[in-house]
Task: inverse folding
């Protein structure tokens, strides 16, 4: 996730607080770990659409990653993200890309790593 984006920061905090089985670890695209993971999976850390979820042997990006992440989240976020499966990918992926491209302009900046939140800090990779 983008460690400087307010929307991404909110998403990371939401994941940290609703991770039912403590399965998530979060790396910012600005970190060495995050950049290396993205590059290993053919994604550009500088691309605003780069959101990667590694779930076992599966790697997902974009709206698919958000929907899959929802499988591991408690209510209300888990069920809400799964509703996205009802929207055809051909429609939801352009919407994801639109929001990703404008996330800083629409939601602003916020330093994810500077948030004094113990649940999130426990999930952040270096």
Result:
């Amino acid at each position: 996730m983008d460690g400087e984006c307010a929307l991404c920061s909110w998403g990371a905090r939401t994941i940290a607080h609703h991770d039912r089985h403590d399965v998530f670890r979060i790396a910012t695209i600005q970190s060495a770990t995050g950049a290396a993971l993205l590059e290993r999976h053919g994604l550009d850390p500088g691309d605003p659409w780069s959101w990667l979820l590694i779930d076992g042997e599966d790697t997902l990006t974009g709206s698919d990653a958000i929907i899959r992440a929802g499988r591991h989240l408690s209510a209300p976020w888990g069920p809400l993200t799964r509703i996205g499966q009802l929207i055809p990918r051909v429609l939801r992926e352009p919407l994801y890309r639109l929001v990703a491209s404008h996330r800083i302009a629409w939601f602003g900046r916020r330093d994810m790593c500077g948030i004094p939140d113990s649940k999130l800090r426990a999930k952040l990779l270096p």
Remarks:
- The first strand starts at residue 52 and ends at 55.
- The chain has a mean pLDDT of 87.
- The first helix runs from residue 6 to 18.
- The beta strands are 52-55, 58-61.
